[in-house]
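tokens incoming
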């Protein structure tokens, strides 16, 4: 099979880590008889420098014409430190999500046994933790109207809005993800206080009979925030609205002990984008020291999305082997051991596929 992949390396370490993921995808293609054809397009600060627009129309067309999008990172200090900048790289990410209709953000959290000691939590608490957060990405308070401040500036207001259609499509995706995993779905809301949460809970109960094989539970967001820390192994799939999901996924991301290991996907009706959750890390750009694992694991999620589950499993197995053998960058290396470079990690993973 031939797959068209849009490559959006972005800023900072983006080009380096995306380059290693491409190396791994090419190894998958050679092993399993697929062809991946790539088209690069600018986004973020790189796109502003080239076109003045952080998400140019040309980039959007490349994304639309592809089977999937592999994205690096966005952000540049020259814009972060300039309060007068009218256009910022991060605006490109928001525009891309909205333009491509990416309504669901998927963040898996899996603690590798050999890295469990790096977690800020006790090893016995995090060992075996393996769950997926499904966050609604295009609705809720971030996009609700009206939004603003009073004329005197002393009152501010935001509106949280969800329609049945928005809730049904994200819950459908979450139920289906639970079916692919261990068959348990936790709907996180604040239904004792918030009307939109009560709508979420109502619709989830209405949909549950369509998924009799899925164990469904409801959990208030404040309790979920505690349980993710106290009992991370309790969860399989968590689904929640935009604001709650934004907070809970960042909370969950620290459990593994390294942001450099965490992939993500943003899924729409017609488009799908895959990216590491970490930022552009401009201090490391061009030094060949950045951890490419999260991007490589994002490529594995992309393979799964394309229906290539065996291929995705091969990538994850090779990543796990690299960790076990100590072929890791400086953020994961044990004391007294020499770190591998970005390219060495990519070479090892690709070679072991």
């Amino acid at each position: 099979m031939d797959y068209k992949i849009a490559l959006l390396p972005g800023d900072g370490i983006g080009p380096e880590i995306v380059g290693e993921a491409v190396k791994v995808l090419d190894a998958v293609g050679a092993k399993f008889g697929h062809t991946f054809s790539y088209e690069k397009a600018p986004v973020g600060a790189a796109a502003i420098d080239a076109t003045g627009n952080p998400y140019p129309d040309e980039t959007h067309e490349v994304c639309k014409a592809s089977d999937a999008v592999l994205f690096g990172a966005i952000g540049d200090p020259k814009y972060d430190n300039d309060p007068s900048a009218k256009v910022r790289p991060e605006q490109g990410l928001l525009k891309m999500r909205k333009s491509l209709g990416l309504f669901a953000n998927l963040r898996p959290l899996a603690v590798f046994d050999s890295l469990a000691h790096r977690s800020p939590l006790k090893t016995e608490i995090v060992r075996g933790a393996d769950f997926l957060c499904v966050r609604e990405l295009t609705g809720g308070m971030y996009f609700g109207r009206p939004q603003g401040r009073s004329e005197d500036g002393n009152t501010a207001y935001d509106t949280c809005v969800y329609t049945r259609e928005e809730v049904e499509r994200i819950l459908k995706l979450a139920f289906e993800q639970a079916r692919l995993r261990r068959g348990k779905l936790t709907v996180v809301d604040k239904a004792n206080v918030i009307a939109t949460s009560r709508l979420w809970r109502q619709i989830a109960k209405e949909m549950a009979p369509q998924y009799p094989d899925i164990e469904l539970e409801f959990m208030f967001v404040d309790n979920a925030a505690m349980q993710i820390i106290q009992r991370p192994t309790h969860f399989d799939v968590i689904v929640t609205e935009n604001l709650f999901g934004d907070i809970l996924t960042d909370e969950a991301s620290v459990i593994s002990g390294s942001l450099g290991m965490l992939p993500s996907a943003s899924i729409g009706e017609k488009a799908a984008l895959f990216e590491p959750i970490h930022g552009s890390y401009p201090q490391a750009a061009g030094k060949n020291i950045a951890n490419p694992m999260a991007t490589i694991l994002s490529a594995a999620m992309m393979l799964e999305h394309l229906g290539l589950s065996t291929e995705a499993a091969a990538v994850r197995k090779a990543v796990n082997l690299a960790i076990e053998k100590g072929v890791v960058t400086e953020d994961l290396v044990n004391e007294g051991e020499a770190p591998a470079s970005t390219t060495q990690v990519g070479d090892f993973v690709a070679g072991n596929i």
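note: The first strand starts at residue 2 and ends at 10.
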